[in-house]
Amino acid sequence: MKRLIKNATLVDARGNHGKADVLIGEGRILSLSGGDADEAIEADGLMLAPGFFDPHAHLREPGQEVKEDLESGLKAAAKGGYTGVVAMPNTTPPIDTPEAVQALYKRARAIPGARLYVSAALTQGQEGARLTEAGLLKAAGAVLLTDDGHTNEDGGLLALGLRYAASYGLPVAVHAENAGLRRNGVMNEGPVSERLGLPGNPAVAETARIARDLEILRYVQQALEPTGHTPRLHVQHLSTARGLELIRAAKADGLPVTTEVTPHHLTLTDAVLEGMDPIYKVAPPLRTQADVEALIQGLEDGTIDGIGTDHAPHTLAEKEQDLLRAPFGIPNLEVAFPLLFTELVLKRGLKLEVLIARFTDGPRRALGLEPIHLEEGAPADLVLFAPNAERPVDPAHFVSKAKFSPWSGWKLAGWPVATLVEGQVVWRAEA
Length: 431
Ligand code: DOR
Prior knowledge:
The protein contains 14 helices and 20 strands. By secondary structure, the chain is α/β, with parallel strands linked by helices. InterPro entries: DHOase (IPR004722), DHOase/Allantoinase_Hydrolase (IPR050138), DHOase_cat (IPR024403), Dihydroorotase_CS (IPR002195), Metal-dep_hydrolase_composite (IPR011059), Metal_Hydrolase (IPR032466).
């Protein structure tokens, strides 16, 4: 079966390529200049881009299906324009064996939605005491090792983990917070937390941990040099201007480090917590406007490789507890692109192809995956979005089980209208 996407404006990480008729078949882009098809999708006024890739989402399976499951998560991702999403392993139990990795891939095969990529725990049970089997996890299809949701307090174990992961070509992702400095903080430490009398989580919890991890990376890189293996460190959900500076310097120094930023750390500050609404409670916490400005700059100049959503669904009952008790996390797979398209491209003049690059090539490369561009022969993992139609965020219509959002009511443009994986339509907006 062949499909023709007609009159779409093509944009990928390399730029805006103007209008074209894109012929798709056998899961690939067959032509950018039309051709005979069994079905046509009229896309006049719409933009066509490579499908988005999320290196960081919590899909909660196994064990936390009351918050989200593979089906709701992969469909929510497709609705958000994602064709690939990396599921985090802080499930119940944590994903730390090859069997658990394989079971998720098997389940996902029956679900029409974004493609699933599984990350596995770096340490057994994510307990930070004993490493998992990097080689077996890689053979089972794990794309990344991480104890995300937990901090890697034992630097020696992280060094060893980076070494083993490197020998199997796997990156290690870190939730870079120092547990001692973070303590029981529920929001950014600063004037707002002081005024509210709430325990603060200071920026230094993140920056001290990033500084340590970069030094560990340097050490492992040197140790592995004779073997030809390269350790790869991915710093998750960067939230501070100082953390960005450290990563910028490390990159300039040739360290194999990559990083990501979330939609919330690019659009919200700790000022939103004045009303003590736990909907804004997230780890790491929302910071200051100066941090937001620095992160936007880092996204623009490429120090930040890509957007990682850290989509973290919880039940409404959990999130409606008071700020001290509610769990950390913000669901955002369905709003990430329109939010950043509106706030960064339309309002602040960020180049569209830069935003697209951070939703596609950047995070793919960070995980060692090939970039996808709009060219003949490329996989037909695509998103069509509407750059001009504005609509408010309405979490009641989320496909995700977590039907709440800090951006509820925000008027956004850039909503995806169709998502294709391997040439198949996995999500389409109702006309
Ligand atoms: O806010 C967060 N929620 N940050 C994390 O690192 C974990 C996540 C979760 O699993 O809910």
